[in-house]
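[User]
If only I could read backbone structure tokens as easily as an amino acid sequence. I have put the entry right below:
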Amino acid sequence: MEDSLASSFTNRANTQVMNQISMAVMKQQMDQEEAQAAALVKMIQNTSLDGTGQIINRTA
């Protein structure tokens, strides 16, 4: 009986650790994707629209 309880608690603890690891990895991936998206937006905003390679003031 004690072995069964110990095994059950160990399995539960292992599951919790795996869930925490999965959440940390997912958060890291989301942070990386957010940084990549911000870099892409910045690149798009700095791109000229007329094909000359010169920046055009689009806010005027």
Residues 9 and 15 are 10 Å apart (CA to CA).
